[in-house]
Design brief:
The structure holds two protein chains of two kinds. By secondary structure, chain A is an alpha+beta fold. Chain A contains eight helices and five strands. Chain A starts with 7 loop residues before the first helix and ends in a 17-residue tail after the last helix. Chain B has 23 helices and 36 strands. In chain B, the strands form nine sheets. A seven-stranded mixed beta sheet of chain B has the order 15-14-27-26-25-16-17, with helices on both faces. In chain B, strands 32-34-33-36-31-35 form a six-stranded mixed beta sheet. The chains are: A alpha+beta, B alpha/beta. The interface between A and B is medium-sized, with 14 and 16 residues.
Chain lengths: ~200, ~800
């Protein structure tokens, strides 16, 4: 089967990534990030390609991808709205927040609006307890969100785009080339990038 | 020899082998340590934590499945700390495991149920809701998964990847939703999927054919030998209400290690199929057995008086005892050597029966190298494939593939050549045993040349070579050993062997020719020429299996009187004057002989339908109707007679099958017959002329043959009528996967779907045999032309 995701430059980047590790299979997660960035979600065909690139079975790639909720196995909307409903946020009204969104857009958890614009999901602790209740849109944080304003916030993103809407912090995914974006999503910023230690003569 | 050590377990000394796993050593010493993830035939992973024990000097509890024993090791398996750990593990497992034992197939034979009773806390503190899943999901055509019952031991994952080499299932959705799944668009399509059901320690994996069919305490079981092919896997056949409902593998060191292929595991279904023949019929008219016996006896009497000729084709389905009765009947009563259990699709009978340095399956793992000049083992002898794979995986034993279709074993091969004749023995290691596995690689192959090649290779290697000639059909090896071959007498001796004839004369009151008789082809040629007065087809259908279907038809039409003895109606039975219902596997007691020459017992567990009877009965009764003392009244009596007259089977006595050792069977000893190639081997076929592609027809595990098509669970699993092409060969002809083509072979045409297969050989069209179409006229030079059909 011909590769459809990892071709050309992306294929070279993927191979370089595999070469960074002593064990090829260690590159599984970075390659899944690259796949998701490129294809929008972790596609079945793409997982096969990853399996071939890192030398494990497709079933093992699937087993890994399904462990991480941030890997999407189905297509999602243009924007992903992740509402934290863990304890701190829940105490401060996250359930109400999420209910308002679902009611307004007529969707259930993990569903996408009919126009393909937004996918809503409930997530475990997004680690912004100090700003509870919080939600993320495309992994950018919006803190102290009020139930009465949440629909306006989402509509604002639709109207003006994510960049124009104030966000407390978080990553910017879209404008970066795929590999860097994938690394940022994986929490690997250039200054954190690991380089192998020099060979020790002793 | 590994060092023997003594360990102390709960204060008692236990003898063990150094390095052996503690859990295994304890079990052999009579101390059972509970376990879920550990399985004696799988890699240890220490995942389930059920086997924790105290080991003196080691901090904390240790998993007994991961600790190798050492001399003087002190182990405690029943302390308060161990008990607390066991209760904790079980309480955890039962948090999510449903208590649906009353509706679970595993209930009554469930390791989780049993070990909870023996080692569990008795109470759970968990009051919350358990996990729920849609149930069941089919992870293969034959295996269903109830995910909420799974305890995540991973035995199935390891069985699929380590044993079968089909790593198609794995854990996914790890965390609260951990479950076993396949890759989304890749079903668990494995010939060995049923083994996962067998190793599952709970009711999570169930076999679709057995699900809700019976309760384990309601079945009656016998240990028997599988005859789906000739590997001779041992297993337990279970029946309820006279219907076989399950067959599972028995762990026998010599052969199958507890594993089975799915055809063997689920192939019992035909036994209780409603289409089984249940009464003798003459034309379409039912007759009684007495009438049938009289009629055959009359015919045979005429023949004996008037010098007519009888012949028999088939017998590979029979037990050794039945095959012996057939062999004796043809020689003593019909005075002919015109018997052949092969349909021109195996190896020369004397070559197989005369093998001297014969390899056992266990020799594979101890060899320095294996030379494989055989069919795709996975398709024809699946558990032999497992054992070869086990030997060669990781490079323990060097594998050399000498011709044949590419198979899953090729990636382990040190060398691979396209034809056996091209194999260079210089590639073999200079020292150590070499096992040569030789078998017909595709239908229509010149197997005399192949046999001569194997003989030459073995001779050149001297004493370090072991030969394993492999025939596919159930008891083909046993049938040859019983003399169902024109050139053989019972006991692996030549038909002209005076010593052998002398020995036989004590029991065989009748004369038969010194010269070899006709083989299947020659029998059919003679029949077509009107020279065969009675033709017995014993579990054989030349119309379906002979590579020359025209000859088969002419033969059946030309024979004066055709008697078919079989389980089902076949294409050939339409040409029969008399059709007799046979009792088959699961219905008769006796022995069968496998590819190693290992004689093992088959046991009856159900009563044959209607008036179906053992094939031996017909021959005995006809002989007795003619006033000939025949013997062979019971399988036991026949077994004793065989041991008496056939030296190779002298050790095959009822007493040899008793006890633990008896379950491993008895190896027949080498015979005295020798085989040499007569004339020259045919030259290798030249490249296909013109547009035609060289045609190779081979067997697939699942076909539309008589037995598989009467097993509802297996009948649809075959590939259908397809032509498999290498990607380059397909591309050169503008063909793509799934295209419909009309294939022309000689004067025959058939429609087929194209399968583009990277494992196929370039410029060769591979067509699986018996997938619903008519058999093709085949010889080594047959070609096929493909014409694409507009869709």
């Amino acid at each position: 089967m011909a590769a459809e995701v990892f071709t050309g430059e992306l294929l070279e980047q993927a191979r370089a990534k595999v070469a960074e590790y002593p064990e090829p299979r260690s590159a599984l997660l970075p390659l899944l990030h690259m796949l998701q960035e490129q294809a929008g979600y972790v596609t079945t065909g793409g997982m096969r390609e990853v399996a071939a690139l890192v030398g494990v079975t497709p079933a093992e790639v699937y087993g890994t991808a399904t462990f991480y909720t941030m890997f999407k196995l189905e297509p999602i909307g243009r924007h992903l709205v992740s509402v934290c409903t863990s304890l701190s946020c829940q105490i401060l009204g996250a359930d109400e927040l999420y209910a308002r969104l679902r009611d307004h857009y007529g969707v259930a958890d993990r569903e996408t609006t009919a126009d393909g614009e937004f996918t809503f999901e409930e997530v475990e602790c997004a680690a912004a307890c100090g700003g509870a209740p919080c939600l993320q849109i495309d992994y950018r944080f919006f803190e102290f969100v009020k139930a009465d304003e949440v629909v306006d916030l989402v509509e604002d993103v639709r109207r003006r785009g994510l960049d124009a809407v104030h966000a407390e912090r978080g990553s910017v995914l879209a404008p970066l080339p795929p590999l860097e974006a994938a690394e940022i999503a994986a929490g690997i910023t250039p200054e954190h990038k690991w380089t192998p230690p020099a060979e020790d003569d002793a | 020899m590994a060092e023997q050590v003594t360990i102390q377990v709960d204060g008692q000394p236990i003898e063990a082998t150094a390095g052996e796993l503690l859990i295994a050593a304890c079990e052999k010493g009579g101390v059972y340590i509970p376990r879920f993830c550990w399985h004696p035939r799988l890699r240890s992973v220490a995942m389930c934590r059920m086997c924790l024990v105290e080991v003196e000097g080691m901090r904390g509890l240790q998993p007994a499945c991961y600790v190798p024993v050492a001399d003087g090791m002190e182990v405690r398996t029943e302390t308060a700390a161990v008990k607390k750990a066991q209760e904790g593990v079980l309480e955890f497992l039962l948090i999510n495991h449903p208590l649906d034992c009353p509706v679970c197939d595993r209930g009554g034979e469930c390791p989780l149920q049993d070990q909870t009773l023996a080692f569990g806390p008795g109470e759970s503190r968990f009051v919350e809701e358990k996990r729920h899943f849609e149930k069941p999901i089919a992870i293969s055509d034959l295996v269903l998964l109830d995910r909420e019952r799974c305890i995540q031991c991973g035995r199935c994952v390891r069985a699929a990847s380590e044993v079968a080499g089909d790593p198609l299932i794995d854990f996914s959705y790890r965390g609260n939703d951990t479950q076993i799944t396949t890759f989304p668009d890749e079903p668990f399509k494995s010939y060995f999927s049923g083994n996962t059901v067998q190793v599952c320690p709970v009711g999570a994996l169930t076999a679709a054919p057995y699900r809700f069919k019976a309760r384990p305490w309601d079945v009656s079981s016998v240990e028997t030998t599988c005859t789906a092919c000739s590997v001779g896997c041992r297993g337990v056949l279970q029946q309820t209400r006279n219907t076989p409902v399950r067959f599972f593998g028995a762990d026998i060191e010599a052969t199958n290690w507890g594993w089975l292929c799915d055809k063997g595991r689920f192939g019992y279904e035909y036994v209780s199929h409603p289409d089984r023949l249940t009464r003798p019929t003459k034309g379409r008219v039912p007759v009684t057995w007495a009438e049938a016996i009289d009629e055959v006896a009359d015919r045979v009497e005429d023949l004996r008086a008037g010098g007519g000729a009888a012949a028999a084709i088939g017998g590979a389905r029979l037990t050794n005892e039945e095959a012996y009765a057939l062999s004796k009947f043809m020689r003593v009563v019909c005075s002919t050597n015109d018997v052949d259990c092969q349909l021109d699709d195996g190896l020369p009978g004397a070559f197989v029966a005369g093998t001297q340095q014969r390899a056992t399956v266990a020799d594979l793992a101890g060899a320095a190298a294996i030379v494989l000049a055989a069919p795709d083992l996975k398709e024809e002898l699946p558990v032999l494939y497992l054992r070869v794979r086990d030997a060669v995986v990781g490079g323990k034993v060097a594998l050399h593939v000498a011709g044949g279709r590419q198979s899953g074993l090729d990636r382990f091969a040190t060398t691979r050549v396209a034809a056996a004749a091209d194999f260079d023995a210089a590639a073999l290691p200079a020292e150590g045993d070499v096992v040569v596995v030789v078998g017909r690689q595709h239908l229509g192959q010149d197997t005399e040349a192949l046999a001569a090649w194997a003989q030459g290779l073995v001779a050149s290697l001297g004493g370090r070579a072991r030969l394993m000639p492999v025939l596919r059909r159930a008891n083909a090896h046993g049938a040859l050993d019983m003399g169902l071959s024109p050139e053989l007498l019972p006991g692996r001796v030549a038909v002209h062997d005076h010593q052998a004839r002398e020995r036989l004369s004590a029991r065989w009151a009748g004369s038969f020719p010194l010269e070899a008789g006709r083989d299947t082809r020659a029998i059919l040629e003679a029949a077509a020429a009107g020279r065969i007065d009675i033709l017995f087809l014993v579990g054989a259908d030349p119309l379906a299996d002979l590579c020359d279907p025209d000859l088969a038809l002419r033969g059946l039409e030309g024979a004066r009187y055709v008697v078919v003895i079989d389980l089902f109606r076949t294409a050939a039975s339409a040409h029969a004057d008399l059709v007799l219902p046979a009792a088959g596997w699961g219905e008769v007691d006796g022995t069968v002989t496998n590819i190693e020459g290992r004689v093992q017992r088959v046991a009856a567990n159900v009563v044959a339908p209607g008036q179906a009877a053992s094939d031996a009965q017909l021959f005995r009764e006809v002989a007795e109707a003619l006033g000939i003392e025949f013997g062979c009244g019971t399988p036991q009596a026949t077994m004793a007679e065989i041991a008496e007259v056939a030296p190779a089977y002298a050790g095959v006595k009822a007493s040899a099958f008793r006890g633990r050792a008896g379950r491993e069977g008895v190896l027949a000893t080498p015979g005295s017959v020798t085989w040499t190639l007569v004339g020259d081997a045919q030259p290798a076929p030249s490249a296909a002329p013109g547009d035609g592609l060289a045609l190779r027809v081979g067997r697939r595990l699942y076909d539309r043959g008589t037995l598989v098509s009467h097993c509802p669970s297996l009948a649809e699993l075959g590939p259908g009528t397809v032509v498999c092409l290498h990607p380059d060969t397909a591309a050169a002809r503008g063909l793509r996967d799934g295209d419909k083509v009309v294939a022309t072979v000689g004067e025959a045409t058939f429609e087929a779907a194209v399968v583009v297969d990277a494992a196929a050989v370039a410029d060769v069209a591979f067509v699986p045999h018996a997938q619903g179409g008519d058999p093709l006229h085949l010889d080594a030079s047959t070609t096929v032309a493909l014409t694409k059909r507009a869709s």
